[in-house]
Amino acid sequence: MRLMREEAIVDVVNRLLAEKGYEFMTVDEVAAEVGMAKASLYKHFASKEALAAAAMVRVLERALRAMDDIERDPRRPAVERLHEMLRWTMRTLYEGQMPTLPAQNSALRAVLGADKVYLNLVLRLSDRLGAWIVEAQRDGTLSANLPPEVVLFTLFARACDPVLPVLKASGQYSAEQIQDWLLETCFSGLSGSPKAAGSPAKAPRTAASARPAAQPNPSGHDQAAPGRRRGKSALTPG
Amino acid sequence: MRLMREEAIVDVVNRLLAEKGYEFMTVDEVAAEVGMAKASLYKHFASKEALAAAAMVRVLERALRAMDDIERDPRRPAVERLHEMLRWTMRTLYEGQMPTLPAQNSALRAVLGADKVYLNLVLRLSDRLGAWIVEAQRDGTLSANLPPEVVLFTLFARACDPVLPVLKASGQYSAEQIQDWLLETCFSGLSGSPKAAGSPAKAPRTAASARPAAQPNPSGHDQAAPGRRRGKSALTPG
DNA sequence: GTCTATATTTAGATAGAC
DNA sequence: GTCTATCTAAATATAGAC
């Protein structure tokens, strides 16, 4: 039952990568949560990088399966398929299932770049999404001003959207509400637009019903919950 | 000339934070680049966290000065002021002057949360931007569906936009082109919209003139340059 | 205030018994 | 394959002379 064991390991790695990112995930921690000795872990995976690569491979496989599901309905327009795919990404991110890699770890990059399975999955995902993008641009539902690769990168980047964890941590909004907003800002922008992205429009809010009070977080990733704020813009250091 | 010395130190810290992020910036490296011994550095700043905090304070001060400049023309609509501010952010990021903090370093968060100067700057920046946002929502130039704090977070998040470094590294596009695209996707979304964000519309491109080929980078932050790609979607591991 | 040299801690990885 | 115990490297931080 080696495969079961390794599946359990990747489960833990995936969760820890989503929770704290690659840098702050320690192998000791992984071993402890799986319930085995660290040395035993290394019998299954050669390095910390290999652990991360395994988690990445699995999430890419899941993403491709999500695309399969979305393509099951052949009449759905390309732009709607892209909406659905972004919704899958937001849901995965919201549920703490989206692993996040580090800024620029050359060792990790070397491992990923040498992993044929990983590279092949990235390639397939990019090509299939690229096809949807070009199709949506042809039929005018996606901006044709942007090169397809800019659109692709922009969608990929949503997988580590720092806004989602902040909104989630605030505890003020429902999961669906948060995901709707992020879809809307991605496809329609902050200015709003003719067509709402994805789901039907929600009940409009009054403009000044919430007063902004925020901490900038240039690093991305989640911060500690800022808590409910009251009054005229207070900060909660953490 | 202690202040000059410390200014030089913060210069180096700022650049290194922008280049490699907090995690991969080492104090040895800072000392080496400044040209002084590490122990001397610690006479000026108590810790690595204090170094990062100093860089953050400085960039916030610069951001506030940028807002001053933008507000100098009182007739400019709020949404255009927001455009200008995002353009400042994109320019700073493009020039490698935007420091990036780590995912969730509790020690660093404690230092920042205890830094009165830092907190005060964050507060002022948030309040002033928040006022612009509410104003733009009132006059209908910004979506009133979004709570102001969602808009604010979304704009803050652009300071660590992972798309910019990828596009920059590709070497295919000019700085202005990249910044225009990112402004457009932020305010008008991927679907495109009635009004172009910020600057006048550029010459339209044909939809399929660039073929997407990408590596997903869920962590955000910059990857190594993928290089020019040719043919039908090849990957450059790095 | 600056330096050389060193202390301390942490975390990735391994040795070797069973 | 799993374990305990250990090695090693890197990086933050400090001692103490000048």
Quick structural summary:
With about 240 residues, chain A is an all-alpha fold. In chain A, about 60% of the residues lie in helices and about 0% in strands.
Structure description:
2 copies of one chain form a homodimer. Chain A has 238 residues and is mainly alpha-helical. Chain A is built from 10 helices and no strands. Chain A has helices at 2-24, 27-34, 38-44, 48-71, 78-94, 106-114, 116-138, 148-157, 163-170, 175-187. In chain A, helix 5 crosses helix 10. Chain A is globular and about 55 Å long. In chain A, 47% of the residues are buried. Residues 198-238 of chain A have low confidence and may be disordered. At the A-B interface, helix 1, helix 6, helix 7, helix 8 and helix 9 of A face helix 1, helix 6, helix 7, helix 8 and helix 9 of B. The structure holds a DNA duplex (18 and 18 nucleotides).
